[in-house]
Amino acid sequence: ISAMSKVIVPSQHALNSINNACDNYNVKKINTPITVIPEWFYVELNESTNGNTHFLNKVKTDNNLLIISQLNKLDPALDRKNIINTLDGCIQTLSESRENNFGIVLKLFCENNSLMDFYKTKKIISSYINIVKSKYKSIPKIYVVHGNLTSNELSLLYKSEKIKCIVSGTRGEGFGLTLLEAAACGLPIIATNWSAYDEFLDYYLGIDLELVNVPEELNLRNSPVDEYSNIWVSEAKWAEFDRKSLSKALLKVINNEYSRDKIAIQQKTILNKYSKNAIMSIYKKQLGR
User: Fold this and answer.
1) Which of 145, 167, 176, 225 is the most buried (most CB within 10 A)?
2) CA torsion angle 75 205 161 126 (round to 10)
């Protein structure tokens, strides 16, 4: 950082993490100016949608929860996105609520969006479903969407009448672009009550959490050379969501006990403040161009 003339980060949360790390490891004061400039959503998300939602043709349930992310780690305890635990919590709530017309749509990938990655993702989810069949009285319909979507197709996914809510049990985000996109489309959001997206979301159904130590297996000293090897350090923490709180938030969606007015107001704010033009104007001002 000290070798740079300016550093740009996407959130105050990210900036706080840098400052906290410096304090924790007694790093000398950083004199380089660090500026927070958020990300923007795809322009297409603010345009009228038209096209074929062929990728949702096999979704037969009228109401569905959306989980969209990357499976970072196959071991649920090591996955920063916390996909398996989030999915398990959704299945449990839907099973106990006896809501027969609610399913779960998973837009997932493991490493990339190749055909081999599709088979890998499908195998992981199928194996997991076989395990939980004996755990709960009933299992909701679960659909897997895989592959690259165009910006227009992504907009169709968020705005589909079949999708009632997006759910994220993430343990931590530097920004949370997926949630920005969902908010820009007026989609109700359930998310761990922690991280950068709290800076741009005025209204979402937050899940209670506990900050816990990142597993030692992901520590810089213990991790093999992979995407985590230069991220986690000793004493780093991430959020572990509370299952009962997740269930409570899910039931609010299932029973339509959330504020559509607040979601509409939030959508308008997001469309105005986080469009490409709005964010580019901040860049131009900061870079003097």
Assistant:
1) 176
2) 10
Helix (H) or strand (E) run with residue 65 in it: strand 63-70
Structure tokens at 71: 């499976």
SS3 state of residue 176: coil
The tokens for 127 are: 């194996």
| pTM of the complete model beyond 0.85 | yes
Q: What is the pLDDT of residues 36-73, one digit of tens each?
A: 999 999 998 988 777 777 889 999 999 999 999 998 77
Instruction: Report the C-alpha gap between 100 and 189 in whole angstroms.
Output: 21
Tokens of 118: 């599709």
Query: What is the C-alpha separation between 199 and 13, in angstroms, rounded?
Result: 8
**Alpha-carbon gap, residue 265 to 279, rounded angstroms:** 20
Count of CB atoms within 10 A of residue 100's CB? 11
pLDDT tens-place string over residues 74-120: 789 989 999 999 999 999 999 999 888 999 999 999 989 999 999 99
